[in-house]
Automatic annotation (TrEMBL):
This enzyme's EC code(s): 3.2.1.28
SUPFAM superfamilies listed in its UniProt record: Six-hairpin glycosidases
Catalytic activity annotation: alpha,alpha-trehalose + H2O = alpha-D-glucose + beta-D-glucose
Family: Belongs to the glycosyl hydrolase 37 family.
Coiled coil location: none
Alphabetized Pfam families for the sequence: Trehalase (PF01204)
Keywords: Glycosidase, Hydrolase
Gene Ontology BP annotations: trehalose catabolic process
Organism for this UniProt entry: Gossypium arboreum
Name of the protein this chain belongs to: Trehalase
Domain of life: Eukaryota
């Protein structure tokens, strides 16, 4: 029954998109102010900050002492802010303050390890295994297009990884949340893996795509339930389910998750419960800290969005790293702005990349809050379209019309603000100096960032763009000539900076969005390119898995079968979104019986 529902809903969505075009011709023009969000105002002064909890502030002190005690070798600062307390905070702080210290403030390894062992449980002890309620070793109708027995066997092993990555919070987190930085989520989750023992926001979209291929609909719904819990509790979906993530979100894909689950299940009650939180999240992303106005060449105002974390201190999970990076700044205000840029870049999901730097050779020139990113605005356009579709599904026609108006306005912005005709790409837009002002900024061509990033092609993911065959063919040609297409997939950028969201790394989400957009097109050339990229990505995942016994967070797209590197932590395995994208690609494209899957 599920495949029939899936294809029926795809047809229904196509008809809905056609209605978007028809309705956009008849709806009255949208007012200057967005009726779905609070009035836009520019951020004044230092910007908002969500205060840290006393536990978190103390764990940062523990982290700093650990660095002094052990040194930098194999030091992971996240480990220390993930430690659960055994007893109350005041007792633990008192014991910590009594530790004997040398003149430079360090503690002996013996004394520090004795303290940690006495007052803390191990990092990761606050999550426990949760048996997925809907896992079966080989689901009925699983990946019907995969005919090669070798590939099918591997796909079933990837499918089985959902069991390995399934967790729920421990009873201690539920009954004594004050002892933990892990948040008391109500339902089981799928974690990314390795050091990431909590659920993450944007990772979850591709995890869910894989779960849907695995027919694990209840597990997918539980993830959305947890994200909505965070939204209801904190006012936005957090970067991840830890106390140190309350100051920022991540790329907003909650509506896309709800849409994909509905598309497979036709669960109208699920949509009804999800719709009010989706509208709440939309308002958050269109609040004063995230929204700015750009006036185009025709004097039309466009409300567009940026990343902006509510934080101006070192990120607790990387505090010791951030403090060292900020040491070049001489005054506190410069340091605070740099710390906000670090946290805002983490909110983007691309932490870190030359995409966000004014000077690609100087990490301290991060300026994420002064950039209107193409992909963020695509995610919000998709949110508008998803909410319009979901509202129509449950009979909320007034909401549908409001969000169609919003999507109509944003679609025009992509033509006048982000599109670059000469390059055949959509480009990030850099704000003028003094961006925090109440007046609209006037669009300037030189403010488009003309460096090539995979994000320049993400608008293809949206049906409003991939349904335009002439546009798709122009963008496909641009992608083919961009230098991003490599032996094992799409590179994130053309700059080898040592940062993980730069060359030569390729990431599952970027492969998936671009491939899915190209494959939905009516262009034969675009669909051929999509299939080729997907096959290269499947191969590199397969070969790396056979060599290492693991799925990886990122891959080196220059070399088939090699995982990626760079950034501020060692490469991780598991791995939620990589598993999800491989299963989604195999579901869409299959693998013929006689087709080889080695790198040659």
């Amino acid at each position: 029954m599920a495949p029939f529902l899936y294809h029926t809903n795809r047809k229904r969505h196509f008809l809905f998109l056609f209605s978007v075009f028809i309705l956009s011709q008849s709806l009255p023009p949208m007012a200057l102010a967005n009726p779905l969000s609070p009035p836009s105002s520019c951020t004044k002064g230092p910007g908002p900050v969500i205060p840290a909890t006393p536990l978190l502030s103390f764990l940062v002190r523990v982290q700093e002492t650990a660095l002094q005690t052990y040194g930098k070798s194999n030091f992971d600062p996240k480990h220390y802010v993930d430690l659960p307390l055994k007893s109350n905070l005041s007792t633990t702080v008192e014991a910590f303050d009594k530790l004997p210290k040398t003149e430079d403030g360090s503690v002996s390894v013996k004394d520090f390890e004795a303290f940690i062992g006495k007052y803390f449980n191990d990092a990761g002890d606050d999550v426990v295994y949760a048996e997925p309620v809907d896992f079966v070793p080989e689901p009925h109708g699983f990946l019907p297009k995969v005919e090669n027995p070798e590939v099918r066997g591997w796909a079933l092993e990837v499918h089985a990884l959902w069991k390995n990555l399934s967790r729920k919070v421990s009873s201690s987190v539920l009954h004594h949340p004050e002892l933990h930085t892990l948040l008391p989520l109500p339902r089981p989750v799928i974690i990314p893996g390795s050091r990431f023992t909590e659920v993450y926001y944007w990772d979850s979209y591709w995890v869910i795509r894989g779960l849907l291929a695995s027919k694990m609909y209840e597990t997918a719904k539980a993830i959305v339930t947890n994200l909505i819990f965070m939204l209801d509790t904190y006012g936005h979906v957090l970067n991840g389910a830890r106390a140190y993530y309350t100051n920022r979100s991540q790329p907003p894909l909650l509506s896309a998750m709800v849409y994909e689950i509905y598309n497979r299940t036709c669960d109208v009650e699920f949509v009804k419960k999800s719709l009010p939180p989706l509208i709440k999240e939309y308002r958050y992303w269109n609040s004063d800290i995230h929204e700015l106005i750009i006036r185009d060449a025709e004097q039309c105002n466009h409300f567009l969005n940026r990343y902006y974390a509510m934080w101006n201190k070192p990120r607790p999970e990387s505090s010791t790293i951030d403090e060292e990076l900020a040491s070049k700044f001489l005054n506190d205000s410069e340091k605070q702005q740099f710390y906000r840029e670090l946290a805002s870049t983490a909110e983007s999901g691309w932490d870190f990349s030359t995409r966000w730097m004014r000077n690609s050779s100087d990490f301290t020139t991060l300026s994420t809050t002064t950039i209107l990113p193409v992909d963020l605005n695509i995610f919000i356009l998709r949110m508008e379209l998803d909410i319009a579709f979901l509202a129509k599904t449950v009979g909320e026609n007034a909401i549908t019309e409001d969000f169609l108006r919003a999507s109509q306005k944003r679609r025009k912005a992509f033509s006048s603000i982000f599109w670059n005709e000469n390059m055949g790409q959509w480009l990030d837009y850099c704000l003028n100096n003094g961006a925090d002002c109440e007046e609209p900024q006037t669009w300037k061509a030189e403010n488009q960032n003309q460096k090539v990033f995979a994000s320049n092609f993400v608008p293809l993911w949206i049906d409003l763009f991939n349904s335009d065959i002439h546009l798709v063919e122009k963008v496909t040609k641009s992608l083919q000539n961009s230098g991003l297409l490599c032996a094992a997939g799409i590179a994130t950028s053309l700059t080898n900076s040592g940062q993980q969201w730069d060359f030569p790394n390729g990431w599952a989400p970027l492969q998936h969005m671009i491939v899915e957009g190209l494959s939905k097109s009516a262009s034969m050339e675009a669909r051929t390119v999509a299939k080729d990229i997907a096959e290269r990505w499947i191969k590199t995942n397969y070969v790396a898995y056979k060599k290492t016994g693991a799925m990886h967070e990122k891959y080196d797209v220059e070399k088939c079968g090699e995982f990626g590197g760079g950034g501020e932590y060692t490469p991780q395995t598991g791995f939620g979104w990589s598993n999800g994208v491989v299963l989604a690609f195999l579901e869409e494209f299959g693998w013929p019986k006689d087709k080889k899957i080695d790198c040659d």
